[in-house]
Design a protein that fits this description.
- The chain is an all-alpha fold.
């Protein structure tokens, strides 16, 4: 991999496959493109609204986000926000 560390792991593909759902079906239910689903399953970053759409399309609650998307990505975002806020002070 060029110029970076490993991408964060998420469980979107596992949940989708457990529901016997294709990428295209998840994309339709979530109102997203199949390319977005591909990127998401590959661990690429996405907007919070995209995560919300995927959770609901999988029949999950927003409170299930940590099980699906993991804690590391949200923690790193929170850490970056805190660092930015401290820098501005």
């Amino acid at each position: 991999m060029l110029g970076g560390g490993a991408l964060p792991i998420n469980n979107v593909q596992r949940y989708r496959e457990a529901l016997m759902m294709s990428k295209a079906e998840l994309a339709r239910k979530a109102g997203l493109s199949t390319l977005t689903i591909d990127r998401l399953e590959a661990g690429r970053p996405c907007r919070l609204d995209t995560k919300r759409k995927v959770l609901l399309a999988l029949g999950l609650r927003i409170s299930d986000k940590d099980r699906v998307f993991g804690l590391k990505t949200d923690a790193s975002i929170a850490s970056a926000l805190l660092n930015a806020a401290e820098t501005r002070s």
